């Protein structure tokens, strides 16, 4: 750049102005840029749930067809790595900005996502149970204890928080209660019977209690904000995970409860499918990972029925597993692009 060009582009100080006064004024006028650490999203743990859930589905697929177990194990390892990365980021946020984290955990919308921390550990416990049983047991006890505490905390917040309005309700409200259904899937091998039945009972009763609340909000309050639109997929998860948990306890894949749960799950999948085009056009946000775990849970339920003597859903399960894997890959690539573009860990508009 020539001196003439530079003088035309760069600002000059007024006569008599102190050196650096202008740059200081410019700095005062410019909007403050908040550090990304302050905005590490709770929704990042949905990535762990999606990867871990996909690992479980591929493990079941390997029992139906001759598929290497390393696909499942590779996804489980990615889930563990994702948990360490997201967990380290959120822990650093909690240390540096404790007031922000406290506000999130008390927020009528965001508080539902706090359960993804514990559910992530429980899903990973299931994903590694067949080849790392010691780690699986550790993950179960930490995740189970966290799930029990978070369920009570979130329900208390919803009851006592006077700011909760119908518009704050969204399908992710199922996460804190239905996360209790994830615990028995791994916990039946590690915990006393009374504990796993506690989790199953809480998950079932509160899912059925919340279902009309969430449906009323969806039917009467209006469409969800774009960032929350992917949570519509969460409607698939409760019947899918409940069916898996029931069959780890006393159920069989041919009994009435299992068939009812699979039927409801199938209906929710169809409802999600007819909204796919609308959901596909929503702007990217980390919340798109909300698609992955419910789809993986449904694929697991279909394949588990096939493996354990229920209705043979192998081809339905295979098709859904293919869709789930494509979604995980697509969302993973888009998340990587978002990280490179600086779209992740930014203040929500």
UniProtKB/TrEMBL annotation:
Entry GO terms, CC: plasma membrane
Record localization: Membrane
Pfam family, one: SLAC1
Alphabetized UniProt keyword annotations: Membrane, Transmembrane, Transmembrane helix
GO MF: monoatomic cation efflux transmembrane transporter activity
Entry superkingdom: Bacteria
InterPro entries tied to this protein: SLAC1/Mae1/Ssu1/TehA, Tellurite_res_ion_channel, Voltage-dep_anion_channel_sf
Signal peptide (UniProt feature, chain positions): none
Coiled-coil ranges per UniProt: none
Biased composition range(s): Low complexity: 11-25
Residue ranges crossing the lipid bilayer per the database entry: 42-61, 73-92, 112-132, 138-159, 194-216, 228-246, 258-276, 288-307, 313-333
Keyword Membrane: yes
Location of region: Disordered: 1-25
Gene3D superfamilies reported in the protein's UniProt record: Voltage-dependent anion channel
Keyword Transmembrane helix recorded: yes
Membrane topology type: Multi-pass membrane protein
Name listed for the protein in its UniProt record: Tellurite resistance protein
């Amino acid at each position: 750049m020539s001196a003439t060009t530079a003088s035309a582009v760069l600002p000059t100080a007024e006569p008599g102005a102190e050196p650096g006064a202008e740059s200081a004024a410019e700095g005062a006028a410019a909007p403050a840029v908040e550090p990304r650490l302050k905005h590490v999203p709770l929704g990042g743990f949905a990535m762990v749930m999606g990867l871990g859930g996909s690992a479980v589905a591929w493990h079941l697929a390997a029992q139906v067809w001759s598929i290497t177990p390393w696909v499942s194990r590779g996804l489980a390892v990615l889930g563990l790595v994702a948990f360490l990365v997201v967990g380290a980021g959120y822990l650093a946020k909690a240390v540096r900005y404790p007031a922000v984290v406290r506000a999130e955990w008390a927020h009528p919308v965001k508080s539902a996502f706090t359960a993804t921390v514990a559910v992530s550990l429980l899903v990973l416990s299931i994903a590694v149970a067949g080849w790392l049983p010691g780690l699986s047991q550790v993950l179960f006890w930490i995740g189970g204890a966290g799930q029990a505490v978070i369920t009570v905390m979130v329900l208390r917040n919803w009851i006592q928080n006077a700011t909760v309005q119908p518009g704050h309700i969204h399908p992710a409200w199922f996460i804190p209660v239905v996360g209790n259904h994830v615990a028995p899937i791994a916990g039946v091998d590690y915990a006393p019977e009374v504990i796993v039945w506690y989790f199953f009972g809480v998950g079932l009763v509160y899912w059925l209690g919340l279902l009309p609340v969430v449906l009323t909000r969806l039917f009467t309050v209006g469409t969800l904000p774009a960032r929350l639109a992917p949570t519509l997929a969460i409607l698939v998860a409760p019947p899918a995970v409940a069916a898996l948990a029931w069959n780890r306890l006393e159920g069989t894949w041919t009994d009435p409860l299992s068939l009812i749960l699979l039927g409801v799950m199938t209906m929710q999948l169809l409802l999600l499918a007819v909204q796919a085009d609308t959901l596909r056009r929503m702007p990217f946000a980390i919340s798109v990972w909300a698609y992955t775990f419910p789809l993986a849970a449904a694929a697991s339920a279909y394949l588990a029925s096939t493996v354990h003597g229920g209705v043979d859903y192998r081809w339905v399960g295979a098709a859904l597993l293919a869709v789930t894997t494509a979604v995980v890959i697509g969302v993973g690539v888009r998340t990587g692009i978002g990280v490179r573009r600086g779209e992740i860990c930014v203040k929500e508009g």
